[in-house]
Amino acid sequence: FKNTIKTIKYYVLLMSGGPGSGKGTQCEKIVAKYGYTHLSSGDLLRAEVASGSERGKQLQAIMQKGELVPLDTVLDMIKEAMIAKADVSKGYLIDGYPREVKQGEEFEKKIGAPALLLYVDAKAETMVKRLVKRGETSGRADDNEETIKKRLDLYYKATEPVIAYYEKRSIVRKINSELPVDEVFAIVEKAIDELK
Ligand SMILES: Nc1ncnc2c1ncn2[C@H]1C[C@H](O)[C@@H](COP(=O)(O)OP(=O)(O)O)O1
Ligand SMILES: [Mg+2]
């Protein structure tokens, strides 16, 4: 690659929040309005597996055993995807990463400091309700009540501390995601526009 990550001066926005809080829904609207490059760590991993590459095969083996994909692998994939879009990107929207404080620290070291963290916040009860409903049509194996409980536990244990970590730098904007989608987006827009 000709570009290094140093040439990437654009905004990095992190999208954080619990499972079912509405991250994906808001990301879609952000992309439509601002044209940012949307990178979802889960999508990147699944695409790598689907490509049949050597790394994809290794990832698949790890995931089949139910183990965690090494932190460096996920981060390298995000970084490569960022570099690949460096010439055309207006900014990056990173969805679902970092999942734990360690991942946030590594992100800083290898990529840089994000400009904003949108903390999409909904009550546990609301997230469960939305995921159960999403599970009726999503075809996602993890949208069932038992797995949802585990994902929520992991979120509160590992991911919420990430928000506290960035709060110290005052880049966190808390978004009330109990509201209807368009009202949530109005708050998101305000937070992004304040950056400019
Ligand atoms: N503000 C809102 N009000 C009502 N339903 C919402 C909502 N935001 C999202 N949803 C619905 C859409 C999905 O079926 C479900 C989960 O949303 P999602 O965007 O897929 O969440 P996430 O990506 O955070 O897991 O909830
Ligand atoms: Mg999502």
From TrEMBL:
Swiss-Prot/TrEMBL catalytic activity: a ribonucleoside 5'-diphosphate + ATP = a ribonucleoside 5'-triphosphate + ADP; dATP + AMP = dADP + ADP; dAMP + ATP = dADP + ADP; GTP + UDP = UTP + GDP
GO CC aspect terms: cytoplasm
Enzyme class: transferase
Protein location: Cytoplasm
GO molecular function: AMP kinase activity; ATP binding; nucleoside diphosphate kinase activity
Domain of life: Eukaryota
Keywords recorded for this protein, A-Z: ATP-binding, Cytoplasm, Kinase, Nucleotide-binding, Transferase
Region (LID), start-end ranges: 133-143
A Pfam family matched in the record: ADK
EC number: 2.7.4.3, 2.7.4.6
GO biological process, alphabetically ordered: ADP biosynthetic process; AMP metabolic process; ATP metabolic process; nucleoside triphosphate biosynthetic process
Chain residues that bind AMP: S41, R46, E67, L68, V69, G96, Y97, P98, R99, Q103, R140, R151
Binding site for ATP: G20, S21, G22, K23, G24, T25, R134, L179
Region (NMPbind): 40-69
General function of this protein: Catalyzes the reversible transfer of the terminal phosphate group between ATP and AMP. Also displays broad nucleoside diphosphate kinase activity. Plays an important role in cellular energy homeostasis and in adenine nucleotide metabolism. Also catalyzes at a very low rate the synthesis of thiamine triphosphate (ThTP) from thiamine diphosphate (ThDP) and ADP.
Domain notes: Consists of three domains, a large central CORE domain and two small peripheral domains, NMPbind and LID, which undergo movements during catalysis. The LID domain closes over the site of phosphoryl transfer upon ATP binding. Assembling and dissambling the active center during each catalytic cycle provides an effective means to prevent ATP hydrolysis.
Quaternary state and interactors: Monomer.
Cited HAMAP family: Adenylate_kinase_Adk, Adenylate_kinase_AK1
Family according to the record: Belongs to the adenylate kinase family. AK1 subfamily.
Protein name as it appears in the record: Adenylate kinase isoenzyme 1
Organism: Sinocyclocheilus rhinocerous
Gene name of the encoded protein: LOC107715674
